[in-house]
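Entry type: protein chain
Record version: 2
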Amino acid sequence: MFLDFRMAHVSPLAGVRKLRAGFAPVLAGALLAICSTFTPAPAATLLNGGFETPDIGTGSTFSFVTPSRVEGWDTTDSHIEIWANGFKGVTSFEGTQHAEINAKRFGTLFQTVTGIVAGADLVLEFAHRARKGTDTMRVEIVDLGADDTAGTADDTTLFSRVFSATTEAWIFSRSSSFSEVTALGGDVQVAFTAVSTGSGSVSVGNFLDAVRLHGDVPAVPLPVPALLLIAGLYMLVRIRRA
């Protein structure tokens, strides 16, 4: 009887392909988990930037509103003055309402934004218009520090600049056009303070609308183990195609 002792030919890639079939889903799941771990959370955003809340109605009207009724905002004045679109011929920059900083005196409209990630690149946007002549206001972004309280020793001013506007048109501005603003990780206060009015009156001047605060979190590089895992998956795909 003749016995054939020749060994069957086995492809050296067969074992690798079996390993690939078993481990590829596991590796892919691990890669997904690592990538999701390094996905940064977006910075918090400012509320009611167009002063649309509360709704004071349409037509030729304005209203002195108590700060507690204006979502997100507070003031050093007694009230927040809100104008309806078209009142006294002034069209809102956007939406149907806008605010006047000089309600009853030279005040400050401000809002505190929480949950901002340290290292976020902040960009403040706003529209400014004079009520008569040329109005001027100061715009500030302040990190409130560990105590999250304005006016204390650990406050850090991230942005401060004076802006002027006339009655000709709304002027839309971005803080990024003047300087970069990087969040420190504390609560942030955005403030608009009346500096002067073209009317000469303490209660006539500085319209404000379309306020927004954007926070772009810089991309976080993947760690070396994740990069190695990506390389491993790439090699498995190449083997599969071989």
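Comment: DSSP finds two helices and twelve strands in the chain.
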